[in-house]
Amino acid sequence: MKSLPVEKYKRQALKPRRSGAKIVLAQDYPFTGETGECKKAQSEKTVSIAKNFTCDSFVGEEYLMLLHLAHHGPLIAAVDATGWQDYLGGIIQFNCDNERNHAVQIVGYDLTGEIPYYIVRNSWGTEFGNDGYLNIVIGKNMCRIAEEVSAVDVI
What we know:
Number of helices: 2
Shape: globular
């Protein structure tokens, strides 16, 4: 794994954009497991997103994603989840490079083992994977995880 050049991270990583969106809580808009159109949630409880967000590609520079995770917090990534229905555990390392068709939250990483991996929170409920989480190898843009990466500040 390469060293993490902090100055390059500060210059290149995650350029702010504008937003004013509100997000409803998961308990008010639960996962249903059904295909269809999203419905406008009717909830008085919302979380506001700061008027900045980011969306960048880190292909070939996934170490910048690790820096962002360590210094800022979770990331959102558009991924190819085509083969995830059968995920039972372990680290996804192969056969996962079709079109981006799903969004997930990258909440952490583990560099201590032989294969470094992201810790990814999925939206398919706690019955999926490891209590709703899965692991994806770092450094290979596996499942296209580094191509479209976003971050938000929640207020």
